[in-house]
Structures are given as C-alpha cells and as structure tokens.
Design a protein that fits this description.
This protein has 294 residues and is an alpha+beta fold. The protein is built from 3 helices and 7 strands. It has helices at residues 2-106, 109-112, 203-213, and strands at 152-164, 188-199, 218-223, 228-234, 237-238, 247-252, 271-277. The strands form 2 sheets. The protein has a 4-stranded mixed β-sheet, with helices on one face. A 3-stranded antiparallel β-sheet has the order 3-4-5, covered by helices on one side. The chain is rod-shaped, with a radius of gyration of 53 Å. The relative contact order is 0.13. The model is unreliable at 24-38 and 77-120 (pLDDT under 50).
Length: 294
C-alpha cells in the first residue's frame, strides 16, 4: 500500500512542478505591465514636475511682460482720461466766466439804458463819476447820494406827481396780452396830484409813499454799483412788457435825469412825471443818441 502511494506521488510531482512554474511565469507576465505602467507614470510625473518648475521660473518674466504690455495698452487710455479730466474744469471755468460776462452785460441795461435815467440833452463832455454817471448839464441839479442827505421832517414842501403808461395804447401789438387787466383804458395809473414831502427827500421817496397810499403796486431793485434804485414795475406793468425797449422812466420839470430817482433830491414846486416808454425814450422825448450803448 505504501509503495502504491509513493509511485503515485512520483508520477504527480513533475506535473505539480510544471504547473507551479507556469503560474509563476504568468504572474510575472501579469506583473510586468504594472511595472511598466508605474515606470511610465513616474517618468511622466517627473517630466510634468520639470515643466512646472520651468514654467514657475519663466512665469514671473511672462507676467512682467504681460503686465508691461497691458500697461502699454492701458496707458494711452489713462493719458486720454487724464487729459479729459484736465479739460473738464477748464471748460467749466470758461462757461462760468461766459455766464458771468453775460449776466454783467444783461444786468446793466437796466441802468445803462437808463429807462428812468435817460437825458433829453446830450451829456456834457467829461469823465463819469464813481457810479458811472455822465456829467450833468450845468443848469441841472447834480445827483445827491442818499447816504449824504439829511431829511428834515419839520420842513414841509410840495410837488406834483403823475404816472402814465398811455404809450402802450399805441403799441398794443407788442404788449403782453396777459397784462390787459392791469392796463388802464386811458393809460393813466395816477393822475397829476399835489403831494407834500420833507426837505431832503428824493423822487423815489415820494413815489414809494404815494403808490403805497393809493395801493398801487410798485417794485424796484437797488444797484450798489450805481448807488441807485431802478424801478422795474408799476401797477404790475414791468419793463419789457411792451417790447425789448420798454420800461419806466422819470422826468422832473420836463427833464429826464441821467441818474437814478433815489439820487434826485427834490425842491419845492418840482413836477414829477413817471412815464412808460415802448421805444427806449423816443416816444416820450427822453432818448439821447448813444446813451443806450454806454
């Protein structure tokens, strides 16, 4: 029995040895590709690491080049923006200065045109005073500054005053149609009346008092540059309501003074007339050639 088992083992032993060899060779063959893959992966990783390190070394230079190029591209835009920013304030200053000049050129017409200041005689040759007043004819009263006058209430004097706008009736095509309700049919806002005033008072003082007493609307504006008041509207009829050359003027004893009513000191018996002109004084006898351009 033992011999039989030994013989069987001897027969099977070579077969088992051959089988084990085949298995080992198969495993070796199976393991070989894994070894090749791992080596290729390792080499690939090494190559990638080398590339990354090279890129890291080169990246600052590329970034610098890229930033330089971007700055070169952006710099013209920045310069243009700077130029525009620098231009803007200059343009604003110009526009502001232009507006100021226009305001100055538009504001004086009230006084330079002197709708209540135009004279019937050409001013005498000579220099203007500090308030831009032309020389007054020798036979006419000179202006008196309000701050230099002394009113004496105890000493009463008399004068006459009237307010007319009848020239509008001949220029209804120019008149503001919204003001028809305040336009008297006969053009008389205040008929001639005798009034009492104190010594030292001006034409403006009497006008303010009498319009207030009669409940007649009156609006004025004071111009320090001329040291004088300018009458803008009476009875809600204003300058320019009957054309570009229209407005209020005043005369005393038939003369249109070339200075404001607040600078005209009244004398006993003076005749004050406020008239509305539609043609810079031509239609009321108060125009002087060249005065509107001064």
């Amino acid at each position: 029995m033992k011999k039989w088992l030994v013989s069987i083992l001897l027969v099977l032993l070579p077969t088992l040895l051959i089988g084990c060899g085949k298995d080992d060779s198969a495993e070796g063959k199976k393991q070989a590709p894994n070894g090749e893959i791992s080596q290729s992966v390792v080499s690939t990783i090494k190559e990638n690491n080398a590339k990354q390190s090279a890129e890291k070394k080169q990246s600052p230079e590329k970034k610098q080049d890229t930033e330089v190029k971007q700055e070169q591209k952006e710099s013209p835009k920045k310069e243009e923006i700077k130029k525009e920013v620098n231009k803007a304030p200059i343009q604003e200053k110009k526009s502001n200065s232009t507006d100021k000049l226009q305001k100055k050129s538009n504001a004086p017409p009230k006084e330079t045109q002197k709708k209540d200041v135009v004279t019937t005689k050409k001013p005498a040759s000579g220099k203007k005073d500090k308030y831009q007043t032309d020389p007054v004819p020798k036979e006419k009263p000179k202006p008196v500054e309000p701050e230099d006058t002394t009113v004496v209430p105890a000493k009463k004097l008399t004068a006459t005053i009237s307010i007319l706008c009848n020239t509008i009736l001949n220029n209804m095509d120019k008149f503001n149609q919204d003001k028809l309700s305040v336009l008297p049919k006969d053009g008389v806002i205040m008929a001639k009346r005798t009034v009492e005033f104190s010594q030292g008072e001006s034409v403006l003082d009497v006008l303010k008092r009498e319009t207030r007493a009669s409940k007649i609307q009156m609006e004025m504006e004071f111009y320090p540059a001329y040291n004088s008041a300018y009458i803008e509207g009476i009875n809600n009829i204003y300058e320019f309501d009957c054309g570009e050359l229209s407005g209020w003027m005043y005369k005393v004893n038939g003369w249109f003074p070339n200075y404001g009513s607040s600078r005209y000191e009244l004398k006993d018996g003076d005749v004050i007339e406020w008239v509305y002109t539609c043609d810079l004084g031509r239609d009321v006898g108060g125009y002087v050639e060249g005065v509107e351009n001064q």
